[in-house]
Amino acid sequence: MRQFDAPTILTMGEPSGIGGEITLKAWLAGHDKLSPFCIIDSPARLRNISDSLNLNINVTEIENIEETGKVFKNSLPVLPITLPNHAIPGQLDIINNPAVLSSINQAVHLVQTGQAKAIVTNPIHKKILYQTGFTHPGHTEYLAALADINTEPVMMLASKRLRVIPVTRHISIREAITELTSDLIIGTAITVDKALKHDFGFPNPKIAIAALNPHAGEDGMMGDEEKIHIEPAITVLKNMGLSVAGPLPPDTLFHQRARENYDVVLCMYHDQALIPIKTLDFETAVNVTLGLPFIRTSPDHGTALDIAGKGCANEQSLISALETASDMAANRSKITDA
User: Fold this and answer.
1) Do 11 and 138 reside in the same domain of the chain?
2) How far from 23 is each of 100, 122, 323, CA to CA, in Å?
3) Chain segment 175-208, per-residue pLDDT in tens
4) Which of 131, 165, 214, 328 has the most CB atoms around it within 10 Å of its CB?
5) Closest among 267, 5, 100 to 277, alpha carbons compared
6) In which domain, by residue range, is 218 found?
7) Which residues are bridge partners to 248 per DSSP?
8) Per-residue pLDDT tens for 10-26?
9) pLDDT tier at 1 (50, 70, 90 boundaries)?
10) Is 258 helix (H, G, I), strand (E, B) or coil?
11) Separation of alpha carbons 151 and 79, rounded Å
């Protein structure tokens, strides 16, 4: 089986969150049009969710991922994993932590061996995982460790109207300013340029680079990070042949006409990237990890414990994540076949 023809593999995520519900709803909405996928999860948990929400979805336990295509049209294929404790919606249970990580580990094995074409991860709850020794800041860093890569992976939030990259991620603004360097910007831009070419089909990606300070620092009057870190990085990237522009003032970077001038924006800190995309496309934005040796996407939201089990979780971001993963696999296959 060529990897592009293989199914996508979903991870369970936090079993007390909305991952099971949105997976079932995604299958219900798209089993006649989405590329086949299966999930590593507890079949009993998924059946309980389907029954409690009156979804009337068939859940089929499979022994091998290659069975996915045979059953996908009529039922949700599940590679079984055992939950030590019954998962109660909205109530975290530390006993189930090993199953959460095992689901991720198995998914990585399947994609690394070519049995799956991509991974789509349901949201995990990092705080509960930390209580049993999980030391990674999040999914992205854990996947990078499993992939045994030396370079730092890059998080991209993508929708049909906007793609953004937070150069620094889950740290305070004070720490982000300290960590921001020319080398970090350069390394991030190189990873993004390569990914947009190989996985998104852009022959010459146009990368906008946001300023850190108001009005791009106003010639140093409102901060000098642009002159010290951002402008030198842009010079290096241009000399390498990348199509980059900046530093551009963030307050005028995200309106409709401005978005026509670039394919992606490198933002200097977390909220600078996430606020505009969640304002524009809250329901459909997708989290994409760039720089891994395999394709990984996820819905752009958390475990939503407050609404778990209530039947109101929106599956659209997960559907977008599945569609994006399939599109990336198709583009990567074209590069491989060329």
Assistant:
1) yes
2) 15, 8, 13
3) 999 999 999 999 999 999 999 999 999 999 999 9
4) 165
5) 267
6) 161-280
7) 210
8) 999 999 999 999 999 99
9) very low
10) helix
11) 31
